[in-house]
Amino acid sequence: MNDYEIKKGHYEKIEGEKLETLMIELFENARKDNEKLHSSFGALETITVWLDDKKTLCVETKMNTRVDDKTATETIRAYNQFLERATGFNTKERKKRANKK
Q: Of 11, 53, 54, 65, which is least surrounded by CB within 10 A?
């Protein structure tokens, strides 16, 4: 499991049904189970997402490593785009924050 810090003031963009809408937009499907959202896309066999609090997005993934390069590239692009739109931080900023931990 990975937890990602949510940018200050960004929570309002993903609260309620907005996070589910974002997952449907990027991964083409989402299913809600209690407080967790489940989806799959490309090499992501499963992605489970939930908000721990207003400052933390939790993500669990299970990857299929036996996919072609095009699928792998599309999956990485969609996953990074999801994290950026869900947390408010781009890849470089998320990496910098992870290194501080």
A: 65
